[in-house]
Structures are given as structure tokens and as C-alpha cells.
Specification:
Layout lengths: L2 H6 L14 H4 L2 H8 L1 H23 L4 H13 L3 E3 L2 H10 L2 E5 L2 H7 L6 E5 L23 E3 L1 H13 L3 E6 L5 E7 L5 H9 L4 E2 L3 E5 L9 H5 L5 E6 L2 E6 L9 H5 L5 E5 L1
Helix pairs in contact: 4-9, 6-8
The protein binds iron/sulfur cluster (3 copies).
One iron/sulfur cluster binds next to helix 7, strand 6 and helix 9.
Length: 269
């Protein structure tokens, strides 16, 4: 279990704890304010800051430790994510009372592409997304929110995984969980923050990928699929096989999907 489970899980995995989706969290005035400005605050400012920080990172080879610590602390308090494998993301979506699909803010910021990959989930009658300002996407403030059934959402998410999406959940002022995302690693602010300046604004999945060496033929497909550089090829008894570093693995499950011999499984971290 991760730090979030200890703090927000009440004995469960934190994202399976119903109180983290509860309506009483939505009545918090600070959270309501945060949601109203969420898109410009997190994505517009976030990508600009990433560019500036990358310049520092390149010059010095790393970020100052206090800056890195402050960034992670702020992310954990406000908008923190976790990678989930597809079976767990679908379980969350199926249990939700309302699901609203909206465009992905990262893809929009990077390439002005409107791809509807984000799902606002609510488990009670009150919904968080009504206050969100859609003018970020060049729309009217309440335009572009599309209600979908859980079956539709699951089909869409399965389709996105075929295209290489990484599934994540996000807090809207922790511990309230509002969004289920299907991220494109090249566009996602969080994955880019991790890869470009080595700051982690999302948690690894509760699962880690493991290779059954007896089933691996060393094709290397899993290695090319992994966006976290967690897989390397090693030689054992003259045969090339894949090895996964559990500390680098985020548990997204994309390597498992790519493996044609079913040599990869996800096991509890
Ligand atoms: S976190 Fe993922 S799905 Fe959500 S806005 Fe960013 S890339 Fe899009
Ligand atoms: S994709 Fe499967 S068979 Fe190929 S190297 Fe990876 S684990 Fe081995
Ligand atoms: S090793 Fe597999 S499960 Fe782990 S991060 Fe890489 S692709 Fe995802």
C-alpha cells in the first residue's frame, strides 16, 4: 500500500475508499474555488512552469532538492495521480453514478487536439464538473461535457488502451478523487514532468509487472512499449530475456498487453 492508502484509505486501497468520492468533500469552499480555475491553474501554468524548470534541470543536471520537495508536496495536496491497470480503472468507472467525458487538457495544450479521454466520475448525486470552466478549450463555459454510460466508457477506455493510453486517477484537492484519465505519454503533463525533470506527481500502481522467464522469447516488444524505462534485455544461458525493474515500473500494464507469449503478469507490489 502507498502513502495515500495509509493517509486516505481507512484500511483499504485509497481509491477504493468511498469517502474519497463523497459529496461532503465537495461542499468545501476551497475545493470549489480550485475546481473553478482548475484547467488554467493546473495545465496552462503547469506546462509553462515545466519549460522553465527544464532549463534549470538541463543547466545543473538536476533540480534543487528543496524545489523538488515543494513541488511534490503541492501536488500531493492539490492534484496528485496514480497509475491504475485497466481492470481497476474499469472497476471504478462501472461503480460510478454519473460519468461525464471531456476533452483532455494536456493534449489540447500541446497540440490543440480535442480528444475526449478524461472522465469526471461522481459516486453521489452531486457532481464536481459543473463548475469547471470549459473556456480553456475555446468553448462556452458549460459546453463540451458529454454524459456517457459505464458500458460506453469501458468500451472507450479499452479502445484507448489499444492505442497505448496509460490509465490514471486524479485528485481535485486531495483526497477527493474526481477524474479518470487515459493519458498519452507524449502529451501528459505528469509523465512529461517525470521524464523531463524527474519529479513524480503521480504514484505507481499497486501492481508491478513480472516476467515469467520460461515463457519469454526475448522479442523485446515489451521494452519498446514501456514509457518508464523499466525494462531491459538480459542474457541467460545464451538466451535473451526481458527483465523488469520493479522500482521503475509504474504498473500500467502496457507491456503485458504487448507480449504475444503472455509472459508478463501484474502482481501486487
Ligand atoms: S492527465 Fe492524462 S488524460 Fe488527463 S488531461 Fe493529462 S494527458 Fe489528458
Ligand atoms: S514481449 Fe514478452 S516475450 Fe517479448 S521480450 Fe517481453 S516478456 Fe519476453
Ligand atoms: S514495465 Fe510494463 S507495467 Fe511497468 S511501467 Fe513499463 S510497461 Fe508499464
Amino acid at each position: 500500500m502507498c502513502e495515500f492508502c495509509t493517509k486516505h484509505g481507512e484500511g483499504k486501497i485509497w481509491y477504493k475508499n468511498a469517502s474519497n468520492y463523497a459529496n461532503d468533500l465537495l461542499s468545501d469552499i476551497n475545493r470549489q474555488r480550485y475546481i473553478k480555475d482548475f484547467l488554467s491553474l493546473v495545465f496552462e501554468d503547469g506546462f509553462q512552469a515545466l519549460g522553465r524548470l527544464e532549463t534549470i534541470f538541463r543547466k545543473k543536471g538536476r533540480l534543487p532538492k528543496n524545489l523538488k520537495t515543494a513541488m511534490i508536496k503541492k501536488a500531493k495536496e492539490e492534484h496528485f495521480g496514480q497509475v491504475l491497470p485497466i481492470e481497476e480503472i474499469c472497476e471504478l468507472v462501472i461503480k460510478a453514478e454519473t460519468i461525464v467525458r471531456m476533452p483532455c487538457a494536456c493534449r489540447w495544450k500541446i497540440g490543440k487536439k480535442e480528444e475526449r479521454c478524461c472522465y469526471a466520475v461522481s459516486y453521489g448525486p452531486d457532481t464536481w464538473y459543473e463548475e469547471i470552466d470549459m473556456r480553456y478549450f475555446g468553448k462556452a463555459s458549460d459546453e463540451g461535457l458529454e454524459s456517457v454510460s459505464s458500458d460506453e466508457a469501458v468500451k472507450q477506455i479499452e479502445h484507448m488502451e489499444e492505442d497505448g493510453a496509460i490509465h490514471t486517477i486524479w485528485t481535485m484537492m486531495t483526497p477527493f478523487i474526481g477524474a479518470v484519465c487515459n493519458c498519452s505519454p507524449d502529451d501528459c503533463l505528469s509523465i512529461q514532468t517525470l521524464n523531463r525533470i524527474h519529479v513524480e506527481t503521480m504514484e505507481r500502481a499497486e501492481y508491478v509487472a513480472r516476467v515469467d522467464e520460461t515463457m519469454c522469447d526475448g522479442c523485446g516488444l515489451c521494452d519498446t512499449t514501456c514509457h518508464f524505462r523499466a525494462i531491459e534485455s538480459i542474457t541467460r544461458s545464451g538466451q535473451s530475456i526481458a527483465r523488469i525493474d520493479p522500482h521503475k515500473c509504474f504498473g500500467c500494464g502496457l507491456c503485458r498487453k504487448a507480449c504475444s507469449t503472455d509472459a508478463i503478469s501484474l502482481v501486487l507490489r
